[in-house]
Amino acid sequence: MTDQNNEIPTRTGSFRAAVRAGTTVTEYARAGSGQPLLLLLTDAIEPDSFAARVLAGVADHFRVIAPAQIPTKEDFATWLADFLDGLGLIQTSIVTEDRFGVPVLGFALLEPSRVDRLVILSDTAPETENLDGSLAAPAQGARPLLIVRRDGTFDAVITKVTRFLDRS
After folding, report:
1. Considering the chain, what is the average pLDDT of its residues?
2. 7-11 contacts: CB < 8 A, separation 24 or more?
3. 78, pLDDT greater than 80
4. What CATH number does the domain located at 14-166 have?
5. Residue range 48-72: average pLDDT?
6. 74: confidence class by pLDDT, cuts 50, 70, 90
7. Residues 164, 117: contact at Cβ < 8 Å?
8. pLDDT category of residue 102 using cuts at 50, 70 and 90
9. pTM over 0.70
């Protein structure tokens, strides 16, 4: 199934679908191809938005799933677990923006086996370049975390994100 709507730019094509996530149906966009699979959690992807550009940039390297609507209430962790289950995903890497950073980080701490790597695109966080681009909590089962400031060039942000996600 190929999406003829050009709202989500990628070189490899894209499509929209829906999955039952617990008691709700969540629509999502899929772009890119191959492995690893990456979950992009961001506000609605509007043409020419930062999120659309990130989707296009990472879809050159990964298969990306981007939900159309993300709950921001206390049921976020349940919704995310149900969404991953609905997609048949045991574990995935996640890229998100500041707005969803704390809920996603909470999910990663509660469900460490479900999150391979976590990237937070931030407007205000400290730069992590001096720390080799990755931070990990000292707890057992912690996952690599990258916080990238969005104030650099777009190409530099995408390069940092893809290099971090490509590490095994």
Report:
1. 77
2. 7/45, 7/46, 7/47, 7/52, 8/45, 8/52, 8/55, 8/56, 8/66, 9/47, 9/52, 9/55, 9/56, 10/55, 10/56, 10/59, 10/60, 11/56, 11/59, 11/60
3. yes
4. 3.40.50.1820
5. 82
6. low
7. yes
8. confident
9. yes
Average pLDDT over residues 1-25: 60
Report d(CA 100, CA 32) in Å as an integer: 23
Q: Which residues of 139-163 are buried (b: 16+ CB within 10 A; e: fewer)?
A: eeeebbbbbbbeeeeeeebbebbbe
